[in-house]
Amino acid sequence: MTSDTGNSTIFGLDRDTAAFYRRLGPGRYAPTVHVQGAWRDDEQHMAPVSGILAHEIDLHEPREGMQPARFSFDILGMIPARESRVEVRTTRPGRTIELVEATMLVDDRAVVRAHAWRLAAHDSRAVAGVELPPIPGPDEMEPWSGADTWEGGYIEGLEFRVDPERRPGRTRAWIRARNPLLDGQHCSPTADLVRLVDTANGIAVRVSPREWMFPNVDLTVHLFREPVRGWVGFDTSVTMGPSGLGITSTTLHDEQGPVGRAEQILTVRQLPSR
User: Fold this and answer.
1) Of the chain's two ends, which shows fewer C-beta atoms within 10 Å, N or C?
2) HEC readout, the chain
3) What is the reported pLDDT for 10?
4) Distance from CA of residue 29 to its chain's centroid?
């Protein structure tokens, strides 16, 4: 199977473009091998998908003084690694508060639906305060190869620093991507952070993904300020219940400190014996 550009491919994915996506036109994107998922070779990892949805939300009816405060993503099924289209609309317009919806479609089937609250910026420095604890910087942590635990082009394109005292279900880590979200285009610092957040479910695994499946069916990101570009920090814990449910909870950081929170609900299933 080959791409429409003639570039070398793997499972139909462009291997030559040093970015997660190539833009094909308004709202249309071609995923590259750098979005390849961890569970299947022919799917997109949710992390870059959430980044491209955040980018499209940024582009939709932008207004000076409005800022993204929450993104919620519902994963409607496997996300095929094929040409993807994003549709965006404002579902709750307002002067200081608005709600925007974005949907990714592959083969005209909705695969992920996102909602984002955008709130007006106000000067609140007089009452600003952060109760979320900081974490050591990336230079104080150890390199880690995510490919030792996970497969796929997305994980291979990341750089990790992890807490040497990490344990199953609990870790602190820093991640950055070697490739940009879009080929030849810039995205906002917020989209740059959001495109990595879904990785949280893979850095503090309680059990081996070769023995159990625990994919998330959603992702929610709350932000209390605009992040800065660079390393993204994760202070992550994974909880698994007795009836097939789990939660991955993360405090998000940039290199200036805590910036928000993320939650993922998991479906926990033992892999069948071979």
Assistant:
1) C
2) CCCCCCCCEECCEECCCCCCEEEEECCEEEEEHHHECCCCCCEECHHHHHHHHHHHHHHCCCCCCEEEEEEEEEECCCCECCCEEEEEEEEECCCCEEEEEEEEEECCEEEEEEEEEEEECCCCHHHCCCCCCCCCCHHHCEEECHHHCCCCHHHHCEEEEECCCCECCEEEEEEEECCCCECCECCCHHHHHHHHHHHHHHCCCCCCCCCEECCECEEEEEECCCCCCCCEEEEEEEEECCCCEEEEEEEEEECCEEEEEEEEEEECEECCCC
3) 45
4) 17
Phi, then psi, of 168 in degrees rounded to 5: -55, 125
Sequence-distant (6+) residues with CB within 8 A of 133 are 235, 251, 258
CA distances from 90 to 59, 61, 129 (A): 12, 8, 31
Strand pairing partners for 236?
171, 250
Can you tell me the distance from the alpha carbon of 87 to that of 103, in angstroms, rounded to the nearest whole number?
5
**Model-level pTM?**
0.93
Per-residue pLDDT tens over the stretch 17-47: 999 999 999 999 999 999 999 888 899 999 9
Nearest to 20 by CA among 158, 226, 112: 158
Q: Both tokens of residue 203?
A: 């850095």
Task: Say whether pLDDT at 274 is over 70.
Answer: no
**Pair 45, 36: CB distance under 8 Å:** yes
What does the radius of gyration of the chain's CA atoms come to, in whole angstroms? 18
